[in-house]
Design a protein that fits this description.
The chain is mostly helical. It has one domain (3-160, 171-317). The chain contains 11 helices and no strands. Helix 5 runs antiparallel to helix 11 and helix 8 packs across helix 9.
Length: 318
């Protein structure tokens, strides 16, 4: 298939995440629990994967010896998904939405380029060169412009009215680093699932294992902080079926990344995932989908997105 097809598929895969986040927030509002909401999201994905396997005539059976013979790190895909969830909850009150998003996206991008350069986890090697370095800078600049980071920083200075109030806090470096680590989890998860689908012989079964483990971890975390699974009885379905489409988006994200990372490389995949996320977020805001506050697409967001795509061209096509 044409490389442009794979690049387009990666962009569409990235668009699944903002929608998943939006509908997941509706479940969270019903249950008053981010962990239980994530559990519902993953369980929905598991059901859809099971139905897809039945439709394709795939067997659910794998012998214990077969599963035990798989590399131990293949089973890290689910915990990595749970780690991204917990990291977001920890970072949001400390870095804010914009800071958390920038940190996670930077982690995705940089870890993708590192995986490419060293051919980690069996990926095809794409050496880091001056052109890829230029692409990296363009993508980071595009992220900052699209998220209005510079405008937000200027407004904080104006509101606080003094340089002293903007004093640098060393702890911010640690929180930002944690955000980058969360982004790295996404890259590593994609690479692991890419290997797992070959070892297991099924992308659907690979995603089923990953989402099942994430659902179980989310349920355990909810129990640990006193959020009883009894809250699941509060779920309402009439007129709200669209709220449960987050599981489908999770399936698209996991299977898409696993299939594409070997085709276009981790660096290009993460760049297009970021571009897709920003594009979908911009559209959801612009059309005020599901009650979101309307934020019209402006020149800065569009220019930032275009800058990211130019950076992707430097990373993958030139």
């Amino acid at each position: 298939m044409s490389i442009l097809f794979f690049l387009g598929a990666a962009f569409i895969t990235g668009m699944a995440t903002p929608w998943q986040t939006l509908v997941n927030s509706k479940i969270r509002a019903q249950l008053d629990s981010p962990f239980l909401a994530s559990c519902v999201n993953c369980c929905t994905g598991v059901i859809l994967l099971a139905l897809a396997m039945l439709a394709c005539g795939e067997s659910f059976y794998r012998s214990a010896d077969f599963m035990a013979a798989l590399p131990w790190w293949i089973y890290l895909s689910g915990p990595l998904g749970a780690a991204m969830l917990v990291s977001a909850l920890v970072l949001l009150p400390r870095l804010g939405m914009v800071g958390t998003t920038v940190a996670v996206m930077c982690g995705m991008l940089i870890s993708g380029l590192i995986c490419d350069h060293y051919a980690l986890l069996g990926l095809t090697r794409h050496p880091f060169d001056p052109l890829r370095a230029l692409g990296l800078l363009l993508v980071i600049a595009g992220i900052l412009i699209s998220l209005h980071v510079f405008r937000a920083f200027k407004q904080k200075i104006t509101q606080r009215g003094s340089r002293q109030s903007m004093a640098f806090r060393p702890s911010l470096i640690l929180w930002f680093a944690l955000g980058c680590a969360a982004g790295t989890c996404g890259t590593v998860q994609a690479a692991i699932n890419s290997v797992a689908r070959v070892q297991i012989g099924s992308i659907l079964y690979t995603a089923l294992i990953s989402m099942s483990i994430t659902a179980l971890i989310a349920l355990l975390l909810a129990a640990l902080i006193g959020q009883s699974p009894v809250r699941l009885t509060k779920l309402k379905f009439r007129g709200r079926l669209l709220h449960y489409s987050g599981g489908l988006m999770g399936v698209v994200n996991i299977t898409g990344c696993a299939l594409l990372v070997g085709q276009i490389g981790a660096g290009a995949l993460m760049t297009l995932i970021i571009a897709g996320q920003l594009c979908c977020s911009m559209l959801l805001d612009h059309f005020a989908v599901m009650g979101l506050p309307r934020r019209r697409a402006d020149a800065a967001r569009i220019c930032g997105l275009l800058l990211i795509l130019v950076g992707m061209i430097c990373i993958r096509l030139l």
